[in-house]
Design goal:
The protein is an alpha/beta fold. It folds into two domains: about 1-155 and about 320-340, Rossmann fold (3-Layer(aba) Sandwich), CATH 3.40.50; about 175-320, 3-Layer(aba) Sandwich (Rossmann fold), CATH 3.40.50.2000. It contains twelve helices and 13 strands. The strands form two sheets. A seven-stranded parallel beta sheet has the order 3-2-1-4-5-6-7, sandwiched between helices. A six-stranded parallel beta sheet has the order 10-9-8-11-12-13, sandwiched between helices. β1 (about 1-5), α1 and β2 (about 40-45) form a beta-alpha-beta unit. α5 (about 185-195) crosses α10 and α8 packs across α11 (about 310-320). It is globular and about 60 Å long.
């Protein structure tokens, strides 16, 4: 197949540190190429890929002028050459010039969908040429009322995340994610204090949440609770693999949370609040525990030793491995192409 993949312009593919969507795009592009497909990637100019790269001139996804610049780059190429399918992880507006035509178009949402954009695009789109995916049933179910939608989980490269068969029962709890209130960093700290366990916090601090870090996180840091900053893939592998459990104390409806799959790939069970996609990703007693509040999370930490790390890794291989996710997308591409054949 000749496949076009569209990313947002803000971060390179793959990202150096934070950038979950860009990791998924890189995984798919490299996987498709390894299988013999012809892949073009529209992305940040610093992207490093084996695909044919069409670098953006605009660097900000929310800037109108940058969006127009990037739309021109994308659609000039799509109209010039014959692609079998175009798959966008960027803004839906990038596909606007293609909507009235037969070219199969797949729009993937890794965040809360904008329903008005979806319904508007469906009115313009050539019949059966446009479909959607969500990174979880939580996301795809919101779309399915208005357009064809499929849930395809995010995946991880199992070669990057190494299975750690055993950890000491005194191993630390780990929190990895953006340091902001909705991610629940402060809750992870509360759980560590109540269980007496060490906690390692990793992740970037968004500029707009610097006060949150200074006021609610920094004063709690000591020998028991440590903040180590952002981590790259190698550091993440070591951090997640050495954890007793990974904490996901979210205070919002997480669309997927790829770090949960990364932790599970290391054999590390996940304890998460039952919101958003957590109910789909975490299977009680198999790869971790779902809970609803701090006290329940504390209780789950105390029984985490009952979870088999072998079972956690097996579940990651079965549901989140790159090869599984790549094939699910290729099957969906084939169905869309056949509908428009």
């Amino acid at each position: 197949m000749k496949i076009a993949i569209i990313a947002d312009p803000d971060l390179p593919v793959p990202p150096i540190l934070y950038g979950g969507i860009e990791r998924i795009i890189f995984m798919l592009a490299q996987g498709y190429i390894a299988l013999g497909h012809d892949v073009s990637l529209f992305a940040h100019s610093d992207s490093l890929t084996d695909a044919k790269l069409f670098p953006y001139k605009g660097k900000k996804s929310r800037d109108k002028i940058d969006t127009l610049k990037n739309m021109l780059i994308i659609n000039r190429e799509l109209f010039k050459n014959n692609y079998d399918i175009v798959h966008s992880f960027g803004r839906l507006i990038y596909l606007l010039p293609q909507l009235p035509f037969n070219l199969p178009k797949l729009m993937s949402y890794q965040r809360e969908p904008t329903i008005s954009s979806i319904t508007g695009s469906m009115r313009i789109a050539k019949k059966k040429s446009l479909a959607f995916t969500g990174c979880s049933e939580y996301i795809s179910n919101q779309i399915a009322q208005y357009a064809p939608a499929t849930a395809i989980f995010n995946g991880v490269d199992l070669a990057v995340y190494h299975f750690k068969e055993k950890v000491d029962q005194n191993a630390p709890l780990v929190f990895l994610g953006r340091i902001e209130p909705i991610k629940g960093t402060h809750i992870a700290i509360e759980v560590a204090i109540k269980t007496g366990k060490k906690l390692i916090i990793a992740g970037n601090i968004p500029h707009e949440h610097q006060n949150y870090f200074e006021e609610r996180i920094k004063p709690t840091l000591n020998e028991q609770i440590k903040y180590i900053g952002p981590v790259n893939d190698a550091e993440k592998n070591d951090l997640l693999g050495s954890a007793l459990t990974f904490l996901m104390p979210i205070e919002w409806n997480e669309p997927f949370g790829i770090v949960m799959a990364e932790a599970m790939a290391c054999g590390t069970p996940v304890i998460g609040f039952n919101r958003g996609s957590v109910s789909e990703i975490v299977v009680n007693g198999r790869n971790g525990f779902k809970c609803d509040d701090v006290d329940e999370m504390v209780s789950c930490v105390k029984k985490i030793g009952k979870i088999s790390r072998h079972e956690v890794r097996k579940d990651a291989e079965k549901r989140f491995s790159a090869s599984i996710i790549i094939q699910e997308y290729l099957n969906l591409y084939a169905n869309l192409i056949n509908k428009n054949g």
